[in-house]
Write a structure and sequence with these properties.
heterodimer; A: about 700 residues; alpha/beta; Ubiquitin-like (UB roll); Alpha-Beta Plaits; 5 domains; 5-stranded mixed β-sheet; B: about 350 residues; de novo design (two linked rop proteins); 4-stranded parallel β-sheet; 15 strands; elongated
Chain lengths: ~700, ~350
């Protein structure tokens, strides 16, 4: 139907309110208690309008449109009522906006700025309510509350939780949790809807989870933000909660081709970001991914991108996670790929850097085979061709050899040996050589006492591998104090259970001969340090502790203090920080047509970071070859989710579900994976702990007046 | 819920539990009647009557009373939500009737006067004079009769014979000794305590009315305060979402119309014409009673009392902060408070005559 608002004729559907009709038509009428997703309230009285034929101004939000209606929001009586209402609101609202976390994005601030209203003629007195930061994730600062009731309606009508309401206190009415209990006791889902709809700074995300430098979306769903490949974590956890393994895996596969590998070995930065770290432990996101992947049926395969062949050829040098990922997406975009690797088998660090008890060959082989399967599709021949046992030293030559682009993803296979006395003795091994040999099944002598130097996850991989290969004892020594070590706490605990001793905060002094002139390792001298830091010249400084010198008996010393790219020095590419390949934002190296990604660019990171790099490089190369660079996939149509999540059961607040492990005694003698995937019950229970932080992004964000 | 009726036994005023008292008097009949009808009875949760009505009883928070008169609020409360009114009284879907009319019909009405031990019962259509007669109140020093929420009617002494319908449980008599600024402040603060906080005009409007009136009776009123009230009330009576705060705006307007000068005197003349507002009272030491003992001087923290032994003490009004300690300290009852009429006292201490 047609009506006239402020002299402009607008169309509106029957049953809409005058306010919505105006806003839809781009005519701004001030409003605060109204929210597009919530039932009408009418409490704020800012949306007053004059309607022809009515004696007094009416609430636009409560007035339904009629054919031929003539409405004015600018009529003097409506304007007066609106301004007075705003004066009354401001009279009891704290006057100082600058200290408020919502400064600049506050709807109230925007609205009174627009209206140019001051409460000065009234009794101005804000109502002091102590800030309540006792709840995790959500902070209540009700001194700023204007009682619009949006949070009450969001909690009750949008979410079906209904724990917030107007509360009668001796100091007046304020919003609060029913029964005066904590959010957890009340059954809160911590979905954040209340935070999302609050038009002031009264209900806000706790400061501990708020990063001012991040966007609203990134702050709201920190797990996804923390994932280098931006896997849509809440979406797949939702499917796992429902036991929909193949749908969950499809969601994971929209971003990465290695769900089960990642589910087994990912560094899971997502879990560090999970808001439930503040509420009885992070979601076990990584293990849930594995739980879904092991039950996948591959239904997603029919939906993968399979563009016609372009006639272009790309050489990928290095078949690790970055190279394999790039090969997949390049092939999907219609390019033929030649995949080179110096080793005899595909996988890079996934195969030669990660011990088999973490990631057995079958898992890796399965997911690599899938890459070849889906990229070939119904083509008569594979789009990805492999050249194994072929070390590429000159990528430029590949361009001359009929490739249109080259991607260098050689990783970091050159283990670092520290410049210290005795580093060349018999019995001193590099991490990279040691792990690779172990994985290839080569005979490596680790009999006797082993000391691993280094504090990262690779050091622990070496330590636990040595244990499994028959070492009598294994010690780990590192420069960092335990709380600064880069290995995960879980890794250290499991290793300790297996008998690995840790010496943290020690400087390495010397590796000593067993007997003078023997040429063999006999012991290692280390020295306890008070602290270490980098001075202004980025030089490491260690402060030794008096009398802190110790000598550990050792038959073997393994250096696990870092690793660098192996072959990049001779590739004719511009390098940085030593052996790392310099690239621009589009993965381009200094040589035309040569791209690089993965650890050889970023330094040794993680499989997931390498995959993210491989994706970026594939997109960049496709663009370079004349494509659109779009490698995105929809392997599962997004499904509408229930927004009414209801009040939480007690089990919702359970701690993180732990997987079943083999006993330390059993696992330390074997390379069989010692951790069982979650059972279906464990997985659905754990996934149901997810706060579904992304649900709040479905809530419409009201436009501020300057957006009209 | 379609044909259900809600019957309200919650006292609007705690001191005038009319329907509840009648329920006690007609309990057996009421139990049978409730059994036979599709009703829910709103009863104070701590009332022993709750169990007599089983699931027909809806136990409610008795610390407030006005909102049980609003069916949108009551419907929400029956669903387990807070007592928040989302619209004016007749907008609810379920009929809401008073306990008294459900029990005894609407021909007569029970009214409880402030301070009375017993309510009185009169024909619903009556006059203020008839009410006062029935209550045994003389009209000689009457200023006004106030019929409380939800009627909110103020009847001044000159309109006692106008016919009216009683639509409230509660009434209060104001005499020449009552200050109408204070009366209005008390009414406003009662209304504000009852408000649900849901709408800006109701809650924030009520807050401003209460704050301004509290300032006025405490000698902190400012020129322009009555104009603010005059500006606010008409807006509030049309804009507040429910009858409660619309009623407050109406009462403020009525009392300002009839007693505006008396209230204005608190601001412009710095006096309370009725002599009731404490802040406007002054303390005086009566020459006839003072023995010059010095007890009041010892009690005064302001050093506002002049005098010495055997001399009548005198209070310096400019230094006095009306703390009341001298009055409490005086063993002779010589210190008195005075409103508009001040006792004669010497300007400085004089020898005690007694």
């Amino acid at each position: 139907m047609k009506l006239t608002i402020n002299g402009k004729e607008v169309e509106a559907r029957e049953g809409t309110s005058v306010l919505d009709a105006a806003l839809d038509a781009g005519i701004f009428i001030p409003h605060l208690c109204s929210h597009p997703d919530l039932p009408v309230s009418g409490g704020c009285s800012l949306c007053m309008v004059e309607v022809d034929g009515e004696r007094k101004p009416v609430h636009a939000c409560q007035t339904i449109v009629r054919e031929g209606m003539v409405v004015s929001s600018e009529a003097p009586a409506a304007d007066k009522a609106r301004r007075l209402a705003m004066e009354l609101i401001l009279a009891t609202h704290p006057a100082d906006c600058t200290g408020c976390p919502r400064f600049g994005v506050c709807e109230l601030q925007s609205m009174y700025t627009y209206m140019g209203v001051s409460p000065a003629r009234w009794r101005c007195k804000s109502r002091p309510v102590p800030t309540d930061a006792s709840n995790p994730l959500v902070t209540h600062m009700f001194t700023r509350c204007i009682r619009c009731g949006r949070c009450v309606r969001a909690c009750r009508d949008l979410r079906g939780v209904g724990i917030l309401d107007y509360q009668r206190t001796k100091d007046g009415i304020r919003i609060g949790v029913n029964g005066g209990v904590s959010l957890e006791e009340a059954g809160c889902r911590f979905c954040g809807a209340c935070v999302e709809v609050c038009p002031t700074g009264s209900i806000v995300d706790a400061l501990t989870i708020t990063h001012p430098e991040r966007s609203r979306e990134d702050n709201a769903v920190p797990c996804r933000t923390g994932c280098p490949a931006r896997i849509d974590i809440p979406r797949y956890l939702h499917h796992i909660k429902l036991g929909e393994w193949e749908k969950a895996t499809a969601v994971v596969r929209e971003k990465v081709p290695f769900p089960e590998v990642l589910g087994s070995i990912c560094t899971h930065d997502c879990q560090g970001e999970c808001k439930r770290n503040e509420l009885h432990g992070a979601l076990s996101i990584c293990r849930l991914k594995r739980a879904a992947a092991v039950r996948d049926t591959g239904a997603w395969k029919s939906r993968v991108r399979h563009e016609p062949l372009t006639g272009k050829r790309v050489a990928v040098v290095g078949a690790g996670p970055a190279g394999l990922t790039a090969a997949l997406y390049l092939a999907e975009k219609g390019h033929r790929v030649t995949l080179f690797d110096a080793e005899e088998r595909l996988g890079g660090q996934m195969r030669y850097g990660i011990p088999a008890y973490r990631l057995p060959d079958e898992v890796l082989d399965g997911e690599i085979a899938t890459i070849f399967e889906v990229t070939q599709g119904s083509d008569p021949e594979p789009r990805i061709e492999t050249r194994l046992g072929h070390r590429v030293l000159d990528p430029g030559a590949l361009l001359a050899d009929g490739h249109d682009a080259v991607l260098v993803t050689v990783g970091t296979f050159d283990g670092t040996v520290l410049p210290m006395a005795g580093n060349d003795l018999d019995g001193v091994v590099r991490n990279t050589d040691f792990l690779k040999a172990a994985r290839k099944g080569e005979a490596v002598d680790v009999s006797g006492r082993v000391v691993v130097l280094g504090g990262g996850n690779v050091a622990y991989d070496c330590a636990r591998t040595a244990l499994r290969m028959g070492a009598a004892s294994v010690d780990v020594a590192c420069l960092e104090a335990v709380d600064k070590m880069t290995s995960t706490a879980e890794e250290r605990e499991e290793a300790a259970e297996e008998g690995v001793a840790l010496h943290d905060a020690y400087a390495f002094i010397s590796i000593n001969e067993s007997e003078p002139g023997s040429g063999r390792v006999g012991s290692l001298t280390i020295h306890k340090i008070r602290r270490f830091y980098f001075d202004e010249d980025h030089k490491a400084v260690t402060e030794l502790m008096d009398g802190g010198e110790e000598t550990l008996p050792a038959d073997h010393v393994i250096f696990a203090v870092g690793q660098r790219p192996e072959d990049t020095a001779g590739m004719g590419l511009e390098l940085t920080h030593g052996a790392y390949v310099a690239v621009d934002g589009s993965h381009r190296t200094s040589a035309e047509g040569v791209f690089a990604a993965g650890d050889d660019v970023t330094g040794t990171r993680s499989v997931i970071a390498a995959i993210a790099g491989g994706r970026g490089a594939a997109s960049a190369i496709d663009t370079y070859l004349g494509g659109d660079g779009d490698i995105s996939e929809v392997l599962l149509e997004p499904e509408p989710r229930e927004a009414r999540i209801g009040r939480a059961e007690r089990a919702f607040y359970d701690g993180t579900t732990l997987p079943e492990l083999m006993s330390a005694e059993e696992r330390k003698g074997s390379f069989v994976p010692y951790e069982c995937p979650f059972s279906p019950d464990e997985a659905t229970h754990e996934a149901a702990r997810c706060l579904q932080c992304d649900l709040r992004l479905d809530i419409t964000r009201p436009r501020l007046w300057n957006e009209y | 819920m379609e044909h259900m009726t809600i019957v309200n036994f919650m006292p609007a005023y705690a001191q005038a539990p009319v329907s509840l008292r009648l329920l006690g008097e007609h309990l057996d009949d009421a139990v049978a009647k409730a059994e036979a009808e599709d009703v829910r009875l709103l009863l104070p949760q701590d009332s022993r009557l709750v169990e007599r009505f089983g699931d027909k009883a809806a136990p409610m928070d008795g610390s407030i009373g006005f909102l049980y008169n609003n069916n949108t609020a009551v419907e929400g409360a029956l669903k387990g939500q807070g007592l928040v009114s989302t619209g004016i009284v007749d907008s609810g879907a379920i009929p809401l009737v008073s306990g008294e009319s459900w029990l005894l019909g609407t021909d007569s009405k029970t009214l409880w006067l402030e301070g009375a031990e017993m309510p009185i019962r009169l024909p619903t259509r009556t006059t203020a004079r008839a009410i006062l007669q029935a209550a045994g109140v003389t009209t000689d020093d009457l200023k006004a009769l106030y019929l409380g929420f939800p009627q909110n009617m103020l009847i001044t002494a000159d309109k006692l014979d106008r016919p009216l319908f009683i639509r409230t449980d509660y009434a209060r008599v104001y005499t020449v000794d009552n200050c109408m600024a204070r009366a209005l402040q008390e009414i406003a603060s009662h209304f504000h305590r009852e408000a649900c906080g849901h709408c800006v005009y109701g809650y924030e409007g009520g807050f401003q009315i209460e704050s301004i009136l509290t300032d006025i009776v405490n000698k902190r009123g400012a020129a322009g305060d009555l104009a603010l009230l005059r500006d606010l009330c008409p807006m509030m009576s049309g804009r507040a979402l429910c009858n409660l705060d619309r009623a407050l705006a109406h009462v403020v307007t009525e009392i300002l119309d009839h007693f505006g000068d008396e209230i204005e005197a608190h601001i412009s003349k710095r006096q309370c014409p009725a002599g009731e507002c404490r802040a406007f009272m002054t303390y005086h030491i009566l020459v006839s009673r003072c023995t010059g003992c010095g007890a009041c001087m010892d009690a005064c923290d302001d050093g506002a009392i002049m005098g010495k032994a055997k001399f009548v003490h005198v209070i310096d009004q400019r230094a006095c902060s009306q703390c009341n300690r001298c009055l409490e300290a005086c063993p002779e009852g010589a210190v008195v408070m005075a409103g508009i009429k001040k006792p004669k006292t010497p300007p400085r201490p004089i020898p005690v005559r007694r």
